[in-house]
Design goal:
Elements lengths: L2 E2 L22 E3 L1 E7 L6 E7 L9 E4 L3 E9 L2 H11 L4 H10 L7 E7 L4 E5 L8 E5 L2 E5 L7 H11 L4 H14 L9 E7 L7 H4 E7 L5 H26 L3 H14 L4 H13 L3 H14 L2 H5 L13 H8 L5
Antiparallel strand pairs: 1-9, 2-6, 3-4, 3-10, 4-11, 5-6, 6-7, 7-8, 9-10, 11-12
Helix pairs in contact: 1-2, 3-4, 4-6, 6-7, 6-8, 7-8, 8-9
Length: 330
């Protein structure tokens, strides 16, 4: 079942300070965002775009196995921390949001959405949000926007998210792109961010975040966010390729690294570590042309190669190293 807030057609926020700070220290983060839990993977993510510098430092809050928060408009970042604290303590997203709104005298300036690890969702659009403003809740997700050029932005986000194919990251980005296509922020565009955490909380947040991407200032932040998303996917494939090498799984190395190379073919890093992984599974013949391609892109990788021996990232085999270094030399 989809619930939709009423639109706000009047009432510009009286306390808004164009200089970038308001009296209580909260930041004006007028924006559009989406928060969602993937029912298949259990991943939880927030994605956002705004005509405001570094929106990713304010709006998205995500913790694996706990939930996510998007806090915006005249944003109070404490909604992020306290919302996660309450959900970690066992409160549902609706319970957590109700509790925080009840204690906030500035609640009518806020726009906040939350989702918990079970996919329960809550959202609030205060009546003093700058129009056009509103939110829409669907199964396991919420889209919300304020200071938009028209009232079609957040419904278009919802439709795009529900119809998009691919993983959670792709579907979140599809929602942002649909918002921009519908007109987006009345001021234009400047920054964007995406944070996605995995289902399980390992206690190591640096491992639990599948994506943590920010575009702080760009004339086309969604284009840049998609570029960063492709790079992050490539590095995920590289990590999987390295794990395959540890298992001496040649087919796995080839499969994962070829996926990475397809995403960022201009980046010598992916080719170099592909070649290193091939050497470490005993496939020197396959590794040599990959090394040669890397060296043709940047000679510094040739200089780096012998240094890996002392770190035990390449075999301590002088003949093998010399064979690699001779590639492409006339």
């Amino acid at each position: 079942m989809v619930k939709r807030s009423r639109r706000h057609a009047a009432g510009v926020v009286a306390v808004h300070r164009p200089a970038g700070r308001v009296a209580d220290g909260h930041r004006p983060a007028h924006t559009y965002s989406i928060i969602a839990r993937d029912p298949v993977t259990g991943e939880i993510g927030v994605a956002v775009q705004s005509h405001w510098f570094s929106v990713g430092s304010v709006v998205p809050w995500v913790e694996a196995g706990v939930g996510g928060v998007a806090t915006q408009s005249i944003a109070d970042p404490s909604y992020g921390k306290l919302g996660l604290d309450l959900m970690r303590a066992g409160k549902s997203a609706p319970q957590a949001l109700r509790a925080l709104l009840a204690g906030d005298e500035g609640r009518e300036l806020r726009q906040v959405a939350m989702v918990d690890a079970q996919g329960r969702v809550a959202a609030h659009t205060g009546r003093k949000n700058i129009p056009e403003a509103g939110h829409q809740i669907g199964e396991g997700y919420s889209v919300q926007a304020n200071l938009m050029i028209n009232d079609r932005v957040w419904p278009q986000m919802a439709g795009a998210f529900e119809s998009a194919q691919g993983d959670l990251a792709e579907r979140l980005l599809a929602a942002l792109e649909a918002a921009q296509a519908a007109g987006g922020d009345i001021r234009g565009k400047q920054s964007a961010a995406m944070v996605i955490a995995s289902r399980e909380n390992t206690g190591k947040p640096w491992n639990d975040r599948r994506f943590d991407l920010r575009v702080d200032d760009s004339p086309d932040p969604l284009k840049e966010l998609r570029r960063l998303l492709d790079i992050q996917r490539a590095y995920h494939y590289m990590e999987a390729g390295d794990q395959a090498a540890e298992r001496h799984d040649f087919e796995g190395v080839m499969r994962e690294y070829l996926q990475a190379e397809g995403l960022i073919p201009e980046n010598p890093e992916v080719f170099f570590w592909h070649a290193v992984a091939l050497v470490n599974v005993g496939r020197l013949a396959e590794a040599l042309p990959v090394f040669q391609n890397t060296f043709a892109m940047d000679e510094n990788w040739r200089t780096l190669t012998p240094r890996l021996v002392s770190c035990e990232l390449l075999p301590n085999d002088q003949e093998l190293i010399e064979q690699i270094l001779s590639l492409g030399n006339q």
